[in-house]
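May I ask you for just one protein sequence along with its backbone structure tokens in two labelled lines?

_____
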Amino acid sequence: MNETDAWNSFLMSGSVLDYLQYKSIQNAKKDINTLEEKDEIQDKRTDNQGAEFR
């Protein structure tokens, strides 16, 4: 099933499960195009510690 078929299935049924299937297909497609570079930090945080609390 492709993204369009999943969306049309959701439109016809209005089912939450059909919507979740559509979003999972959409997210899988998105994840392929947004892979992180090898030197990027995996948790998307900087290494800056910030202020020191006392």
